Structure formats: C-alpha cells, structure tokens
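We modelled the chain as a single entity of 198 amino acids. Its sequence is:
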Amino acid sequence: METVHEGMTSPHGLSSTVENIRRRRETRYYKLLCLVADRAETLSAAWMQSTNIYSALCEQIMSSLKVKKVLRVDHSVKFCKQLKVWPGEGTGKRESMTDAKMLLLLQNDIGQIIGRRLTRSENHDDTRELLEHVKGAFDDGANDDEWFIVCDNANAIRRLVVNVFGSLSTVRQDPFHVIQRFTEKVKGKSEKKTLSKK
C-alpha cells in the first residue's frame, strides 16, 4: 500500500503507480490489488473513500476528548500555503485553494486536537462556530473553576470568548507570540537571538 499511497500525490504518479503494480503482479503479492485497481480512477476513488472514513473517525475521536483547564487556539497560515488541489482536467498542475487561507486549530491541555476548520481569515464567524462546537468538551468538574484560552492573537478574540463561554474564561497570549512581539522591537540580530532563547 506504500506504493499506492506515494502515487496519490499527483496524476502522473497515479499512472506510474498502476504500471508499477502491474509489473510486480507476478512476483509479489499485488495480484488481488491489481485485479481490483486496474485504472487510476479506481485508485483515486478508493483513496477518497478511505479519506472520508478516516475523517469521520477523527471527528468521532475529537468529539470524545475533554478540556480540563486550558484551550489553545491557533491560526496557521503555513499549512494552507502548502495545501494544493489537483484539478480534474488532467493537466498535472497543482492549484492553491481559494477558500482556505488559514487552518484554525483548537487543542486541549495535552495538545490533542479537539476542533479544526479551514478558514479564509481570522474572522469571528468561523471562530465562533468552532468554539460553540467544542463547548461541550469542557470537563464537568471544571465548570466552577476559572480556565484559560491561550491564543496567538488574544486581543482579537477576547470579547468573542466571553460571549461564547462567559466570564469564567480568561484569554491569554501564546508565549511564542509574546516573545515574537518583543523581538520585533529589538534591532540587533544577536540581541534578538538572546531574547528569543530566554
């Protein structure tokens, strides 16, 4: 299956993977796979079906996870820059996704992802929907205690968090972004390195 997985990365890879499977049919254990997956379209359909099954499984696991004290909110641009779509015309060229510019991740205390969404920007509509979706993930014993939301841009979502979760939630800035704000103000490279290491 590693050969099949590697071949899913491009349309040209699919055709070469099918040829590779056919070539190894006599000497290796691909005979059953070759009987079923004789065309690139069949492999693509199998890949999409397994992706749907895996996605549903991930959603089920995420819905069962709990948050005890800290919810981390992070908007990532790097992931979506590398996210490409293969158009159906068979040109073999990748295109950027127009609807997804950022990945919004919500993580619990130990770093487990409890919510995810592709968004166009750091808008409040998508963030509010995801926060309301994971509202039930908070531990029942933590309802009376104060808990924290650690975010990459705390000032932007502070009012939104209070509207969704109430006054028991406190929004704090992510330590990485606090350090980044300080190092932006420092002019010398050596001072920046020293400050970011501390």
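As a brief sanity check on the tokenised model: Residues 65-197 form a domain with the Nucleotidyltransferase; domain 5 fold (CATH 3.30.420). The mean pLDDT is 74.
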